[in-house]
Write a structure and sequence with these properties.
The chain is built from six helices and 24 strands. It is of the alpha/beta class. The protein folds into four domains: 159 residues, MoaB/Mog-like domain (Molybdenum Cofactor Biosythetic Enzyme, Chain A); 51 residues, Molybdopterin biosynthesis moea protein, domain 2, CATH 3.90.105.10; 76 residues, Beta Complex (Molybdopterin biosynthesis moeA protein, domain 3); 73 residues, MoeA, C-terminal, domain IV (Beta-clip), CATH 2.40.340. The strands form six sheets. Strands 6-3-5-4-8-7 form a six-stranded mixed beta sheet, with no helix packed on it. A six-stranded mixed beta sheet has the order 14-11-15-19-18-16, with helices on both faces. α1 crosses α6, α3 packs parallel to α6 and α4 packs across α5. It binds ligand LQZAQKY5, molybdate ion and magnesium ion. Catalyzes the insertion of molybdate into adenylated molybdopterin with the concomitant release of AMP.
Length: 423
């Protein structure tokens, strides 16, 4: 008789896994390599931005008080004493009724407190003396981009654990972070198990299928921000599986296998864990797909035994492996982000287990709608290609109807959640 396994709720499975999760280590990298990485330190404004009062326009810097009486009937003329472009600073003191021709981005001369756009002036030159005339008054501060108006010195702008997006890269460069601490990417080993598996380049043969899971997991690992070491395929052979897993684990931070975790004659992962003396955290979760997902801990490392069924494998990674990776990457919200949406079609099949329906989330004028992605069985592979979300249907005796409000976990969003499961 096959072993009877006791299913535990998904939240319980995730918390058992997370009880071993801890922040990882950091490394320093060049700003040009930082895009897509995770910050290993808070980024602080080490100086104000802008660092000096500057002109936001091409125009003339003046002392506003000199313009107070200017009007159409009383134009006021200024002597233009020098020109400063961005990157240069004025060399002369600006006296009453004098102006400095100034370009966008140039530092305001000390005595000036307003800028007049070129378009609002009339210019002339006589006997080598340049002047400009205005017909309206300006207030102190008009058209000045003030020191510190973007950010004050000392502000914490981006926190450790945040993704370095192009905006963060701009901030790093602004403050002179030529090198920045980022979270070191954990190295995750992958084995695909199964005597039926062919490589991508191979022709189909009777009874065989191509190994899609290893490639899928590699992409999921990268999406989560970690690095992959693919160890290849393993035939369903206990001794070979044991030897290979035993050796490979030493080379990586954690190891993922796919397939061979159920109760079949050639499902050898349970026996491998036993032979290794690994602590099995659970071997049955009340979820579908992925109910047979097994996680073990051995010599300080995770051994993730994901299911062989593609959809089950996919879901197992996102709900169990991803939060461990994100924790290593210093995220305070390591789990998939959760939103509420309306189901856009019936899903009538009841299930005692929590069901994760691979879906597409659509933003409509009536709010968020989640559309299940076609063939949605545990062994489905094609519907994964059109999914960017997992609809979570709690287990029970009823099905769900078009329009029902449901929880949805987002797969393509970098944002995370602290805890998306029931307490
Ligand atoms: N008597 C029972 N049978 C099964 C149970 C059960 O509880 N009692 N659980 C079923 C469930 S649920 C699932 S899910 C599968 C899980 O099976 P395994 O994780 O042991 O995986 P395999 O048996 O190795 O393969 C299952 C399926 O997936 C295909 N596969 C495997 N590896 C890959 C790969 N790398 N790329 C693409 N496809 C892969 C494999 O050919 C099988 O079709 O067990 C049920 N059975
Ligand atoms: O583990 Mo299976 O994927 O529940 O169908
Ligand atoms: Mg099996």
């Amino acid at each position: 008789m096959a072993e009877r396994r006791k299913p535990i709720p998904i939240g319980e499975a995730v918390s058992r896994v997370m009880s071993f999760a801890a922040p990882g280590t950091k490394e320093k990298i060049h700003v040009n390599d930082a895009y897509g990485r995770t910050l290993g330190e808070d980024i602080i404004a080490v100086h104000p931005v802008p660092p000096f009062d500057r002109s936001p326009y091409d125009g003339f810097a003046i002392r506003a008080e000199d313009s107070a009486q200017a009007s159409r009937g009383n134009p006021i003329t200024f002597n233009v004493i020098e020109t400063v472009g961005a990157g240069s600073v004025a060399t002369k003191e600006v006296k009453p009724y004098e102006a400095v021709r100034i370009m966008t981005g140039a530092q305001l001369p000390d005595q000036c407190d307003a800028v007049v756009m070129l378009e609002l002036t009339t210019e002339s030159t006589e006997d080598g003396v340049s002047t400009m005339t205005i017909k309206r008054p300006f207030q102190p501060g008009d058209n000045v981009s003030f020191k510190g108006e973007d950010t004050e010195q000392g502000a914490v702008l981006v926190k450790k654990g945040e993704l370095i997006n192009p905006g963060v890269v701009a901030v790093l460069a602004t403050f002179g972070y030529e090198y920045v601490y980022v979270a070191k990417k954990p190295l995750i080993g992958v084995f695909a198990t199964g005597s039926e598996l062919l490589d991508v380049h191979e022709e189909l043969q009777p009874g065989k299928i191509r190994n899609s899971n290893a490639h899928m997991i590699a992409a999921q690992i990268e999406r989560a921000g970690a690095e992959v070491k693919y160890f290849g395929k393993l035939e369903d052979d206990l001794e070979r599986c044991y030897q290979s897993i035993n050796e490979a684990a030493a080379e990586v931070d954690m190891l993922i296998t796919t397939g061979g975790v159920s109760v079949g004659d050639f499902d050898y992962l349970p026996a491998v864990y036993e032979k290794l003396g690994a602590e099995v955290l659970f071997n049955k979760i009340a979820m579908r797909p992925g109910s047979v997902t097994t996680v073990a801990h051995w010599e300080g490392k995770y051994l993730f035994g994901l299911s062989g069924n593609p959809s089950a494998c996919y879901v197992g990674f996102e709900v169990l492996v991803r939060p461990v990776v994100k924790t290593l990457l210093f995220s305070a919200k390591p789990h998939l982000p959760k939103v509420e949406a309306r189901l856009s079609e019936d899903f009538l099949k009841p299930n005692p287990f929590t069901r994760f329906v691979r879906s597409k989330l659509n933003i409509t004028t009536e709010g968020l709608k989640a559309a299940p992605s076609g063939f949605n069985k545990s062994n489905a592979v094609t519907s994964l290609a059109t999914s960017d979300a997992l609809v979570v249907l709690p287990g029970g005796t009823r099905g769900y109807k078009d329009g029902d409000l449901v929880d949805v976990l987002l797969l393509e969003s970098y944002e995370g959640s602290e805890w998306p499961w029931e307490k």
